[in-house]
Amino acid sequence: MMSTFTVNNPATGEELQEVIVSSNEEVLAALKAGHTAFKTWSKVNAHKRSALLSKWADLVRAHREEIGELITRENGKPLAEGLGEVDYAVSYIDWYAEEAKRIYGRTIPGHQESKRLTVIKQPIGQVAAITPWNFPAAMMTRKAAPALAAGCTFIVKPAEETPLTTIRLIELAHEAGIPKDVVQCVNGDGPRIGKLFTDSPYVRKITFTGSTPVGKELLRNCADTLKHATMELGGHAPLIVAEDADLDLAVQQTINAKFRNAGQTCVCPNRLLVQDSVVDKFTEKFVEAVKHLKVGNGLDQDVTVGPIINKKGFDKIVNQLEDAVSKGADIACGNEYDYNDEKGYYFIQPTVVVDVNDTMKIMQEETFGPVAPITRFHTLEEAVEIANGTPYGLAAYFFTESYKTGVYLSENLEFGIVGWNDGAPSGAHIPFGGMKESGIGREGGLEGIEPYLETKYISTNI
Ligand code: NAP
User: Fold this and answer.
1) I need a surface site. Which of 106, 222, 318, 414 has the fewest CB within 10 A?
2) Is the distance from CB of 335 to CB of 349 less than 8 angstroms?
3) How many other CB atoms are there within 10 angstroms of residue 23's CB atom?
4) Domain ranges of the chain
5) Of 253, 247, 230, 276, which is closest to residue 442 (Cα–Cα)?
């Protein structure tokens, strides 16, 4: 019998849609179809692939309002952010539609007069993607666009909380003329479908965005068939405010970076490290700004912070706050909840915690919520040590007007993405990704297509 799962609106608990669970047989059939389609898609010339991607981008743009609202309904983020995510998602399709035409090889001078040495780039094969709920559109297009541009076929399993956006985007890809077996979507739980992906001889690459423990499990499962893997995993971003920072700029950028998507992004600043000579002034300005944020249903016009995605996420945040308070931290504002277990919605008032130290969970575990802990530091060396002191290495931010301090921090922070006076460093044209346990590989920019290509060397003896 066909089984389904329900997608709910996290702001109200309202049921949005039933989605059909893909059975094992259906997933395996889709993988086989993607493998077969690779034989023809990989031979389609780059200009044609580019044109099809551009058409897909145009169609998504034409449905901007519909998709933006869908993102808000299933993810909860404010509508302005839902629409912003559509633009961000399209920017990856645009970028890789262009990059499809720039996959260059090279020639190497021969070591014998008769030898001609050539290096060519070829698509890797079928790519299987698993994506999270926090950016249901952009995390998918950031993978699908370079894969298709390179000549790979692509299959995705979105998170069960937010499959509707992905399903709609894949429909539009088909409407644009990209063949059905070239870009596919399957639905259901991650552990089961992930194992079908990693076990399949028809998949040559796994690309995953999600939590670090799941990324590690997928990597282990890729070993038996030696699949290529890109891992975009968790973060625990530090944000350093040096004593010579422009505090108004720092506050404004921190608010945007911290509370976007209710703090549920992998690059959200989770540990605010402020130099002791300015910590009181920064905290006062920051708390004042936080009090202006409005929590509620993302479809209401003036709402700036939406709900927490589910009970598991809510419980983790509340547990971190209780732990911090029990170990001596103080609440400067927030720490109020509006939730209903029966209906299934969870809101947390934006919260600032002060007098935080390294023994608290909030400083060690990724926080996926609208909570900003502030800790003080004395020297820049101390700030770097605290910042680098977790297994994560995705994004870091700092604020300083001093070039010397900026260079020191840029070079010593062990993070893949560094924002200097910049709380929003992402974009389709830049390499996004983490060091240490935040991931392997980069998505976006020049670097983002390389993981979908094999390098082949041809030695011709004439
Ligand atoms: P998650 O629990 O790891 O889930 C992500 C995806 O993996 C979902 O589609 C999930 O499917 C699937 N999954 C779960 N268990 C799996 C398993 N054993 N094998 C294969 N797939 C499995 O993470 P999340 O809570 O959705 O997302 C939040 C995390 O993503 C955070 O840690 C965040 O930092 C990270 N993130 C990283 C980036 C980046 O670019 N580095 C960007 C965004 C988010 P089901 O839930 O449907 O079972």
Assistant:
1) 106
2) yes
3) 14
4) 4-233+438-461, 237-432
5) 230
Ligand 1 atom nearest 215 alpha carbon: 3
Continuous segment of H or E residues that includes residue 432: none
For ligand 1, what atom is nearest to the CA of residue 135?
43
Question: Number of helices and strands (H, E) in the chain?
Answer: 14, 22
Residue 281: predicted pLDDT: 98
Which of 195, 266, 436 to mutate to test ligand 1, by most ligand atoms within 8 A of the CB atom? 266
Per DSSP, the three-state class of 421 is: coil
Distances (CA, A) of 425 to 141, 182, 249, 416: 18, 32, 15, 11
Domain 4-233+438-461 has CATH 3.40.605.10: yes
Q: Give the active site residues.
A: 232, 266
* DSSP letters spanning 361-380: HHHHSPP-SSEEEEEEESSH
User: Tokens representing 338?
Assistant: 């509006």
Alpha carbon distance 407, 259 (integer Å): 27
DSSP H helices in 186-267: 190-199, 212-222, 247-259
Fold of 237-432: Aldehyde Dehydrogenase; Chain A, domain 2 (3.40.309)
Tens digit of each residue's pLDDT (9 = 90 or more) over 195-233: 999 999 999 999 999 999 999 999 999 999 999 999 999
Q: Which atom of ligand 1 is nearest to the CA of 160?
A: 47
Residue of the CA atom closest to atom 35 of ligand 1: 210
AA identity, residue 300: D
Integer-rounded Cα radius of gyration of the chain: 23
Count CB-CB contacts under 10 A for residue 171. 13
Q: Is the pTM of this model over 0.85?
A: yes
Write the pLDDT tens digit of every residue in 4-45: 999 999 999 999 999 999 999 999 999 999 999 999 999 999
**Phi, psi (rounded to 5 degrees) for 227:** -80, 150
Ligand 1-lining residues (CB < 6 angstroms): 130-135, 139, 157, 159-160, 189-191, 194, 209-211, 214, 217-218, 232-235, 266, 366, 394, 434, 439
**Mean pLDDT taken over the chain:** 98
Dist CA 320 CA 305 (whole Å)? 19
pLDDT digits (tens, 9 = 90+) for 62-85: 999 999 999 999 999 999 999 999
Q: Is 4-233+438-461's fold the same as 237-432's? A: no
Rounded Cα–Cα distance for residues 346 and 256 (Å): 21
Check the CA dihedral 235-240-246-251 and report its sign.
positive
Q: Whose CA is nearest to atom 28 of ligand 1?
A: 210
Query: Would you state the structure tokens that stand for residue 253, as one six-digit string?
Result: 């950028």
Q: Is 351 within 8 Å of 372 (Cβ atoms)?
A: yes
Given a contact cutoff of 8 angstroms between Cβ atoms, the answer to whether 233 and 215 are in contact is yes
